[in-house]
Write a structure and sequence with these properties.
The structure is a single chain. The chain has 14 helices and 12 strands. The protein has 344 residues and is of the alpha/beta class.
Amino acid sequence: MLLQVSELVARGHDCLVAGDPRGELVRRCRAAGLRTLPARIHGDGDPAGVLTLAGGIRRFRPHLLHLHTARAHAAGGIAGRLTRCRPILVTRRLELPPRGGVLGRWKYARLADHYIAISTAVKESLLSGGVPAERITQIASGIPVGEVSTRESERTRGAEVVVGTVAAFTPQKAPSVWVDTVRRVAEACPGARFIWAGEGPLLEECRTRIREYGLAGRVDFPGFVEAVDSVWEKIDIFFLPSAFEALGTVFLDAMARGIPVVATRVGGIGEVVRTDREGILTEAGDDAALAAGIERLVADRVLRKDMGEQGKIRAREFDIGKIVDRLEALYQELTTGSAREVAS
């Protein structure tokens, strides 16, 4: 969202970002010189949050209200209805079906005029939840490809190959599968080392298991890293065994840097990474297959280089400039009189 708004402002659009004043998003928006509205929302129908948003909408008088999270969808949708701000657009980044029940159906039927699905998997989840196809536009998330530090697809470091991960330690990212896979690769590839940068509730469990396996000297858990480029520079193979994933822009981050990917064939990952082109995909939870994919890349320097170069080319298709081109076109379509009549 920050990337989208920054690009829109650079193109001359006037944008206001509402968010928790204590949160990282608002901090980064302010650092980037973007206009912000402090708004703490404690729940879907939080009255105080709704009133704060409604007040901001009345003062700012936007042509369009674009909501980016499930909580924003509810509270922002209600605020938009109260202030007669139309159209209301919601970007959905979950591949799970919309919440059912009377309130869920009302939320998806009445609190948004149109939806952006970031992948085919997300679009299918919206369709399964009863959202009509004509109210859904598929637009992927993007990354600033031109700003990503360039690197050679293969660096000279003797026999050492670093298998790296940048993600939160949550059940979605399947850290238990990651540890099992690393154990297999470590046994088969003495020259392989591993790093996972990030934090989360399952970090200590992973550290404990790695120590129990006697791999502490080959696995680095640096925690949250502000200057994440310092981590990317160390990685030769990017590995993330997600249990589910709506799209996965972190794979684009790796590919834009010329790093081949080993991942799972879930959600929208296959729409980003094409197996045997930019990387290797396996079924979720199959640590043996994931290890085999990593071992194949560890052993084949030429394959790593070729997949890395393919990844650079593929990532350009998801450059934030191209994504905002599509977003602008949708904004224009939705803010015409005919689009508003259809949406209502």
